[in-house]
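Running this now, will post back.
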Amino acid sequence: DSTRVAAGAVTEAREYIKGRWGADYMPRSARAFRTKAKGAQEAHEAIRPTAVAREPERLRPYLNQDQYRLYDLIWKRMVASQMAAAGFDTLTVEITADDQEGGRQYRLRASSTQLRFPGFLALYSADRDEDDQQEPSKAILPDLVQGEALDLHDLFPEQHFTQPPPWYTDASLIKELEARGIGRPSTYAPILGTLQERGYVRRAGRHLEPEELGIIVCDLLVQHFPNIVDEKFTATMEEDLDQIAAGERDWVPVLREFYAPLAEAVQEARERMQAVRVEPEPAGEDCTLCGRPMVIRTGRYGRFIACSGFPECRNTKPILTTIGVPCPQCGQPLVERRTKRRRTFFGCSSYPECTFTTWERPLPEPCPVCGGLLVRSGVDRAKCLKCGATQTQAPPRPSARARKKEPVAARR
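Update: finished.
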């Protein structure tokens, strides 16, 4: 959680920028950035390449796809942070129009922006998190002269309504947490993970859309614990903990100020909070034990399929994602699973009857040597689990969008 970069690394980056793009892309003085988070550890450096000369493309043969993408992002952001700012030319035109019949005068305005000097955009440009509707118009205005008379060709009357803000993405939510002083860089990932694991939000593309359970829980917390759910409470608590760690405050008074109101609010919530039941969604199948309809429920560790006759019938099934590859031992579909520490692995859908598992992603094509199961090994290699043969060119890995469209199967 530090943005400080060693002076030697900054000098090396500036020399690289001057040699590759020219002196115009190198600012006169080295850039320095402040850490936004209060209490950040400024003693260490930000994550950066050990040497700017180690370009991502030169290291690509030695990295797998995930390693390459991560290093490419770190390298580009570090180098771009020391490049000159981009320059834009903005042209704004005001047009006056007289209404001869109504005797009124209208003033119309149009503007366009053109990139004059790319600067750091020649190397790196962050993707926009907002919806496309918020992007400025890219139309370029023609050459105009002040006082020039214009002809009216068409009028397009449109009514605009105030649009709600877009749903948060991972990046925009972290930016909002940082702006409000909530959490630390080390806690942002657990916050995002908890929101999804408990079923409070669902991921729709890049956006995080709230689930009914999340809306209900949020409304109840705001109603019965307004002082604690308030974002200022978290920021204030973080400051108090920093002061305790620095020896500026005693922890006992701080704990007493927090616990007494909390205990009172909890007791009042137990007496007045109404029980709210979230109706489960149908799973489209019947229970194999009692014949009642199965429904999708949300538990502590995510969504699962359960019998609607609970608690009389406790039959449950996990929701698993198939990958389109049969198990090499029993022929049942292989599915994607996760460990308790959220690490992904692949196993047979008929578990526990079949215990086949592998950490590497299986590939649909069989081994050309023995017909065994091929798994991905590195960026452009495949390995056979049966005979150990390797291929230099593996079948292309499906994209994230394609993996989302893979069929979902429920298995014991």
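DSSP finds ten helices and 16 strands in the chain. More later if anyone needs it.
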